[in-house]
Amino acid sequence: MSLASSNKSNPPPTPRNESQLAAVLEKAHALVNEQYRIWREELTPALAKEGIVYRERGQLTKEEREEFSEHFDREILPALTPLAIDPAHPFPVLTNKNLYLLVQIAGEKGEPNRTAVVPVPRILPRVLLLGKPGANVRFTFLSHIIKSFIGRLFPGLKVMGAWAFRISRNSDLYVEEDDEGNLIQAIEEEIHNLRKGAPVRLEISGDAPPELINWLLKALDLPAECTFQVDGPINLMRLGGLLDLLQRPELAYPSLTPALPEAVADSQQLYRRIAKGDILLHHPYESFMPVVDFLRQAAVDPDVVSIKLTLYRTSGDSPIVEALKDAARNGKQVTALIELRARFDELNNIAWARQLEEAGAHVVYGLVNYKTHCKACLVVRKEKGGLRRYAHLGTGNYNPRTAKVYTDFSLFTADPVLTEEVGLLFNVLTGNLSKPKFNHLLVAPFDLQRKMVEMINAETAAAKKGKPSGIFAKVNSLVDPLVIDALYRASQAGVPIDLVVRGICCLVPGVPGMSPTIRVRSVLGRFLEHSRIYRFVNGGSPLIYLGVLTGCSATSSVEWNACSL
User: Fold this and answer.
1) Following DSSP, what letter does each residue of 245-260 receive, concatenated?
2) Which of 251, 286, 307 is the last residue of a domain?
3) Percent of the chain's residues with pLDDT above 70
4) CA count, 13 A, side-chain hemisphere, 230
């Protein structure tokens, strides 16, 4: 497989989507403005009431500047490298989402002012405490401290000002899968090229001079409407570092101890319990450890013949991967399907793939031109009467860390009907079967979209006949045109439809004559709502499905939906 041609890294907008992009950009500006309004008018005052006071550069007292002077010279200055910009020093390549300072330096003897860029290494902490942690603390951001002492980077020169900024680049991977070649190598090379992806956004301090912003936009070849001038710290995500510094547990959520249901409490008896009946867990309210135990037990069980698993994302110290490696070393036949195109986890997954191959596992990368997004594991075990399959199907990734903050479902089953089809699913993924026949699992790109539309249409028909009808769905996003059109028709027939959509929703609810019976909500809270569940009233005999249908085109990736039998 070879890389896509270089011009694919930044495809130009077409006339058909320019207006849509403009509308999205306008909404993005409004959301960012609201984000910083909350920071200034709500969050900062709320912190101050708890004795946690935020200091900007201009608010630092003489004593506070003296307090940080030695710290700057010892812990920060050696890591900074000013980059002059002049005919001998061209504009540098700026890394995606890295923090920079744009510095203006007074020209000498009537010469024009000069500019420089100072990269701020990611390893430096962005939030700094003034004084010691306690009931009353002050904190500031690294950029304010650097700006306070920026003159030490330019001895003998007059610094007229410094402004924090960062750019976002196009981070999509463009890899051709039609040509022969090595997919891992192609993705590694494309990730390396991402630093050269087209800039799509400039975030810069709100007090930066307009002429410098225009100069920067020209250097980046970025239109003015892609500039976000913010009245506050660049990258508010870095506020997360404040939690570790404060040592104020009473201000954080109380820790949650996941329940461990009796059915899965004894890891040694886990397979025996699954053999007796299906087990459904709801994370993070119920522990994710039984999923880890499911694989750990399989790795050491002498009766286990093979393990198959799809891996989309996992944690850096993954016990899932370690269990698979142990199983391979113990002589089990281990097949791991690793999705190399998991967004922002491509390099991590390449590393897992190589480790598993070194341990003796078979590693495959799914179907050409499709992303494998299903979360499934199949264990084959020798028992009296022959081989028996055990399966785990989840709505979430095999990631113990995110399982503590994502809501997801886990289904353990030894049902021969379901596990046989899970086996077929793996054969499709590893053997590239083109026309599989599923009777209980709904699998894209083969039949998921069609079946979903059929079930929605069935609710429409039931409503027209006066029979019980209704649809409930909880998804990440809803953008599939065929599904949306079917939901509109169902609503026009009087079907009650409740949707919980966490992210993008292209369906417009509550429009008379089009979607009068549809209600859409987005649940945002302590946990990331990641579980997917679908319920169709089905004339009074409800059908309930769990799955990973994200709402993107149901033909764009390999997904599964397991019927709750």
Assistant:
1) HH--GGGSPPP---B-
2) 251
3) 86
4) 25
Label the pairing between strands 333-338 and 362-364.
Answer: parallel
- Give the count of domains, the chain: 3
In order of 308, 326, 340, 356, the CA distances from 322 in angstroms are: 14, 6, 19, 9
DSSP letters for 36-60: HHHIIIIIHHHHHHTTEEE--GGG-
Rg (CA), the chain: 28
374/39: higher pLDDT = 39
Q: Residue 524's pLDDT is what?
A: 87
Q: Residue 409 is encoded by which pair of tokens?
A: 């479902």
The half-sphere exposure of 198 on its side-chain side, counting CA atoms within 13 A, is 14
Phi, psi of 366 (to 5 degrees): 85, -155
Query: β-strands 279-283, 557-563: how paired?
Result: unpaired
pLDDT score at 232: 92
Q: What is the mean pLDDT of residues 33-51?
A: 95
Is 480 buried (19+), middle (13-18) or exposed (0-12) by CB count in 10 A? Answer: buried
Non-local CB neighbours of 296 within 8 Å, separated by 6+ positions: 267, 319, 323, 326
Q: What angle do CA 313, 319, 324 make, to 5 degrees?
A: 85
Length of the chain: 565
CATH number for 53: 3.30.1840.10
Residue type, 188: E
- Could you give the count of Cα atoms lying within 13 Å of 227 in the half-sphere of its Cβ? 21
- Single residue among 437, 470, 491 that ends a domain in this structure: 437
- 3-class SS shares of the chain: helix, strand, coil, % to 5: 40, 25, 35
Is position 21 within any domain? no
CB 363 within 8 A of CB 250: no
Which residue segment(s) compose the domain that 61 sits in? 27-251
**pLDDT band with cut points at 50, 70 and 90 for residue 564:** very low
> Does 407 have pLDDT greater than 50?
yes
pLDDT higher than 50, residue 37: yes
Q: Tell me if the bond preceding 509 is cis, omega within 30° of 0.
A: no
3-state secondary structure 494-548: CCCEEEEECCCECCCCCCCCCCCCEEEECCCCCCEECCCEEEECHHHCCEEEEEC
One domain, residues 66 and 116: yes
User: What Å distances lie between residue 562 and 103, 257, 413, 484, CA to CA?
Assistant: 57, 28, 11, 22
Provide CB contacts within 8 A for 18, sequence distance 6+. Answer: none
The residue from 71, 89, 283, 373 that is catalytic is: 373
* 440 catalytic per annotation: no
Q: β-strand 528-529 against 386-394: which pairing, if any?
A: unpaired
- Do 106 and 80 belong together in one domain? yes
Spatial CB neighbours of 68, under 8 Å, sequence gap ≥ 6: 60, 128, 130, 145, 148, 149
Q: What is the pTM of this model?
A: 0.82
